[in-house]
Write a structure and sequence with these properties.
alpha+beta, extended
């Protein structure tokens, strides 16, 4: 005969419910301890700027910030932002706007299909390939609070 026979059903149901509640509470506590809360977003700095190739704004692409460990940035995040039609970008560290403070190497990717009639053709870079590689782009910047307007503008030569 099982320990949850007819006479003990109410007690067994209460025990099961208690176990489910305890499991749920433990899961929520562990998720909070893992950094899923709003405190992550509080440490981010808003970063926005404009990307120009020569004198013209890029009209599309992506800006990617790679943490520069040689300058003490040990974050595991790679913040990034899409370049809009006017060349402006806003960095996001998923799912929040901004980037953790620190030094970054920057890459810029701007491509279009090599065959305008075939959107599935291999992409062709609209800028020098070196800008797509953070170690070769020559662009580094420091993210910190209270930066003046234009501090995060990128000028590709």
């Amino acid at each position: 005969m099982s320990t949850c026979d007819v006479r003990n059903r109410a007690r067994c149901a209460a025990r099961r419910l208690g176990a489910v509640v305890a499991f749920g509470a433990t899961t929520l506590l562990l998720a909070g301890a893992a950094g899923c809360g709003p405190s992550d977003a509080d440490a981010l700095v808003l970063v926005e700027g404009q990307v120009k190739g020569g004198d013209k704004a890029l009209t599309g692409g992506t800006v990617i910030f790679y943490p520069d460990a040689s300058k003490g940035n040990t974050t595991t995040h790679e913040p990034r932002g899409s370049i809009e039609a006017d060349g402006r970008y806003k960095i996001v560290t998923h799912p929040h706007a901004g980037a953790p403070p620190g030094w970054y190497k920057v890459a810029v990717i701007a491509t279009e299909p090599s065959d305008p009639k075939n959107p599935y053709s291999l992409p062709r870079s609209l800028i020098a390939e070196k800008y797509s590689k953070p170690d070769e782009s020559g662009i580094t910047l420091q993210v910190r609070k209270d930066m003046p307007p234009g501090a995060y503008d990128l000028h590709l030569k």
